[in-house]
Amino acid sequence: MSIMSFETQSVLAQLFLAVSEGERQVEVVRQVLAEQDHFEPYTAFRRLDRHANGFLTSSDILSFLKLHAIPCSEKDGYYLIRRFDTNGDGRLSYPEFLSAILPNDNPTLRAIVTSRSRYTGREDWPYDVDYALSRVLDKELEVYRTLEVKKQTLVRRADFNLLDAFRAVDEMNLGYITPDALRVFFNRNGYNPYEEDVLCLMRRLDKDADGRLSYLEFVDAVLPIEPYSRPIADTDSWSRFSSPARSTIRSPYSSPYERPRSVSPQRNLNSSFREVNLSPRISSPVFSPLRPKSAPRTRLTSDHYLSPTRAMNQSMSQSLNQSLNRSIYSSPAYSSPVKSTSYRSVSPRFSRSPLTQNEERELANAFREQINLDRELEAIKQDLALRADFNLLDSFKEFDTLGKGYVSASELEDGLRKHGVYTNKDELYLFFRRYDKDSDGRLRYSDFCEAFTPRQAEYASLLNNRVSYNLNGSHRRVGFTMETSAQFSRALRLHIENERQAEHLRQRLSSRRGFNLHDAFEAVDRDGNGFITMDEFRAILQDNGIFATEKELLSLMSRYDKNKDGRVSYTEFVQEVTPRSPSRF
Predict the structure, then answer these.
(1) pTM of the prediction?
(2) What sign has the CA pseudo-torsion 120, 122, 126, 132?
(3) Rg of the Cα trace of the chain?
(4) Which of 34, 303, 348, 498 has the fewest Cβ atoms within 10 Å of its own Cβ atom?
(5) What separation in angstroms does the CA of 458 have from each of 311, 347, 436?
């Protein structure tokens, strides 16, 4: 049984979710590259292999990135080599290069790409393909930097311990982590990931592809590449480990299974905190510290960092010595409810909510349910964006049969019926209220695009750059495969269902005797400035035991932030929380 705190386990869960999200983002740009008609991987490999060595070094990759004005350092090149160097020779062979740039979720597309005819010379290599290839490498570096920060946040926690962290996930004490164990760990920490999240996480961390994470794979996934006592941007201290090309000695991180004890920076990190030794004998079933419950463990201690409790006490002391005079809003009705005589502490943690504990919990649960409603729909949007035969214009034409550029409620109803989605007038009204921005009773193409475009920029770019088949009449749907058409129908059905459920939440809140819109807004607006930010949404959720990811908070913001200015005004809050239909849902 792990003795790490719930907060530290939650930070570990957030790291895993960030790993999964990073892998998903990289997979999108891989697919964008593979869908380039002129992309051929062997020619791309020769393009980077400047000296025709038959392999790539970190200097080859850095030269290519700098050619496209992508900021990068020597350690970035070293990381890219380490990430895909499976045999630990400090360089990338052609098969290793393929694993870095080709999509994993689409074996058909992967097979098509690898069977393309090779170029005869470099002069024919299109710039668009070159740029798409640089985006794959750039995205890998972006994900690496994001994860490095989160890893260092985790290992700085006073109660963090590698063995305890491993056992927090491996509750069955198997000595390895299975996908089922990850799901249980996520659920125990208040997260409900999709199956795709777990698959992406396993794909990125499971180096030997055996369907489970060993202790060494877990350590490789959790510990920062750089010792956390050094700043991330400290390139001088990194120069000793920078590039495998700089020395004939194999990189200390070239393989997650072999780390020379004399030079490994991870050993330096572990020894500085008296952590468990990461020597290769850990993999031995006789000496493994994973199986026996009574294995000795030394607690993580450090004199250089405050404990979370001590840091919180200092923060509280500073917060209580300051207060902000809240802004005065004189406009009536739907202006901000902030009063001129009201003062609040700067720290959201210690502000007093005007709602009762039960009412605030109900409001937080409503936020959580709204997040859950949008999660599944967003996953379907992303799936449609990854389907090469799906595009927005042909989808819109299925409803706009006369080519007017907009769709009325009756036309939307007819189109939905063709997809097997049957609605009543109240449900159509709710859908129009959500997406008809100018409230003229017409769903324009821009409104339709907003309803079906994923929020994540890479998916949106992939979908928006896809051209229409320009088919007319009864042939409009010929361009979509049966699977794509079925998925589009599912997205339509989920859109309608989501608006039904969202209205049910509004009516449930408004029917509560102690619920008040002004008080609800003030309960979320912790700093009393008349606007709700994403951090304030996060705060009220966490105060009620709900831990949302960055992506889920963005989803919640997109529902409330009508004018897309990055904050929610009182008017926008009222518009979203107030029931819209006289019918009961």
Answers:
(1) 0.50
(2) positive
(3) 27
(4) 303
(5) 38, 35, 25
